[in-house]
Design goal:
The protein has one domain. The longest helix is centred in the middle third of the chain and has 32 residues. The chain is built from five helices and no strands. The protein is globular. It has about 130 residues and is mainly α. One of its GO terms (cellular component) is plasma membrane.
């Protein structure tokens, strides 16, 4: 069992911190909708900013334990990370639009469905971005 955990530690820690990132995303999304009565797309973008910033630091330091050797490499990681996340933000916007606007679904249910899809896509991108050489 210990070998399995050691072999899959990046996946296990990504699931843990991905879960926390999902809580940041869902929690802030709900707050923006309930407390501030914002449109679901605006709430999604604001929650994206908070959750992606949180995800960058947890992925870099705890999941992939990345230690860039230069400021150039650090900037490249930041740019790559946020670029990849912008791609999945576009996917999120489309998923929410289809689920909520076209299918008239519940905004919280579709945000949860969206988070599962995004979690998988973001793991694949982060694994490449923070790849240890």
């Amino acid at each position: 069992m210990l070998k399995f955990i050691q072999k899959n530690m990046s996946i296990i820690s990504y699931i843990f911190f991905g879960g926390l990132t999902t809580l940041v995303s869902l929690g802030s999304y709900s707050l923006f909708i309930v407390l501030f009565h914002m449109n679901y797309q605006i709430s999604n973008i604001l929650s994206w900013i908070l959750s992606v910033t949180f995800a960058y630091f947890t992925n870099k330091h705890f999941v992939f334990k990345s230690k860039p050797t230069s400021s150039h490499e650090s900037l490249k990681q930041i740019f790559s990370f946020f670029s990849a996340r912008i791609s999945t933000l576009i996917l999120e916007i489309i998923i929410l639009w289809v689920g909520i606007t076209l299918l008239h679904g519940n905004e919280y249910v579709w945000k949860f469905i969206d988070q599962i899809i995004i979690l998988i896509a973001n793991y694949a991108a982060s694994k490449v971005i923070f790849n240890k050489k």
